[in-house]
Design goal:
The protein has 221 residues and is an all-alpha fold. The chain has a single domain, classed as Serine Threonine Protein Phosphatase 5, Tetratricopeptide repeat (Alpha Horseshoe). 74% of the residues lie in helices and 0% in strands. The protein contains 13 helices and no strands. Helix 2 packs antiparallel against helix 3. The longest helix has 21 residues. The chain is globular, with a radius of gyration of 16 Å.
Length: 221
């Protein structure tokens, strides 16, 4: 079961509350200079810095129009995120970036190949670790919500235990924790409206209004 590219990319705009990558590296990321961000983050080499490097490489994969090259780049992002996890297993951002890399890779596979790869389940495991480390992290909540709703919408609910109603609750909690966040509002609107449930339409439209009104803080947004 593949996870949609936008769902996978949700946390690319994130700045984890407990992560403090080197300021020049983050400035390069925010400006969209992903190669420079990776270079500076790798130079410092802390767990937070490597999580930022993984985030930058995930952004490159997201914008890559080539299926094979995007998968290779996602693999690179995953390896960097795993390095960050080895340095600090309690850093939620590192686990989220690993999950995003897996989902980005799956999104560039055929549905059958993605299904047999088990990438959706592996991404879920990483998301669950991030949530266990910080249950009030709006990025972890919104990434989890997007995963649940998208996987269920694509028919993998029974296989992966993806409960869209739980995803809805997570989106509402993420929005309450970060009401002015453009990326979370946009992803919430996208997933709720795409699902098509009439009872979610009002919340989806409210999230869309919030996303339109918000000011982008990074080139990615």
């Amino acid at each position: 079961m593949r996870v949609g590219i936008l769902a996978a990319a949700l946390a690319l705009g994130a700045a984890a509350a407990d992560a403090a990558p080197a300021e020049p590296a983050y400035a390069a990321y925010a400006a969209g200079d992903y190669a420079k961000a990776v270079e500076l983050a790798n130079r410092t080499g802390g767990a937070e810095d490597l999580a930022l490097a993984a985030r930058a490489v995930n952004a490159v994969s997201y914008f890559d129009g080539g299926r094979k090259s995007a998968r290779r780049t996602a693999d690179e992002a995953y390896e960097i995120a795993e390095r960050a996890i080895r340095l600090d297993p309690k850093l939620p951002e590192a686990h989220l970036q690993a999950a995003i890399a897996l989902a980005l890779k799956g999104a560039r596979m055929s549905p059958v190949r993605a299904f047999f790869s088990g990438l959706a389940g592996k991404a879920r495991q990483k998301i669950d670790v991030a949530l266990s480390l910080d249950r009030e992290n709006p990025w972890a909540l919104s990434t989890s919500a997007a995963w649940r709703i998208e996987v269920a919408r694509r028919g993998g609910g029974s296989l992966y235990g993806a409960d869209p109603k739980k995803g809805f609750d997570e989106f509402m909690k993420a929005r309450a924790l970060a009401p002015d966040n453009l990326t979370i509002a946009y992803e919430c609107a996208l997933r709720l409206l795409a699902d098509g449930r009439s009872e979610w339409r009002g919340d989806g439209l409210a999230a869309l209004d919030a996303a339109i009104a918000a000011s982008p803080s990074t080139k990615f947004e």
